[in-house]
Amino acid sequence: MEHVPVLLAESLEYLAIRPDGRYVDFTTGLGGHAGAIAGKLTTGCVLALDRDAESLEQAIENTKGLHDRMIFRHAAFSQLDEAIRGEGWDLVDGMIRGLRR
To answer: What is the C-alpha to C-alpha distance for residues 36 and 56, in angstroms, rounded to an integer?
Structure first.
């Protein structure tokens, strides 16, 4: 089954992605939004977090070819600050959170 991210164009427009920016998708799910953000980066990076290990593995599979601009971490939303600081980041340029059905 193909994964279709909800409100993708609107999300990307709202984030106003900079090619060298740092972004966090803290409910990565199957990787649709995180992959789309990574696709707009040159030297920037997306930190892709999810508490569901199986979803995160699927996101890794779904974003092949973009991994040079992505970092994947198995983490819950409550670990967001720890995950960001764990990458040595003090600030990010944008964050996104998807909704689960």
So the answer is: 15
For residue 7, give every residue at least 6 positions away whose Cβ sits within 8 Å of its Cβ, in sequence order, or none. none
- Tokens 């040079």 correspond to 68
| Element spanning 57, H or E | helix 53-62
pLDDT tens string 40-97: 999 999 999 999 999 999 999 999 999 999 999 999 999 999 999 999 999 999 999 8
Of all helices (H) and strands (E), which one includes residue 47? strand 45-50
Between CA 91 and CA 58 the distance in angstroms is 27
Instruction: Name the strands in the sheet holding 70-74, side by side, starting at the edge strand that comes first in the sequence.
Output: 70-74, 45-50, 22-25, 94-96
d(CA 101, CA 97): 13
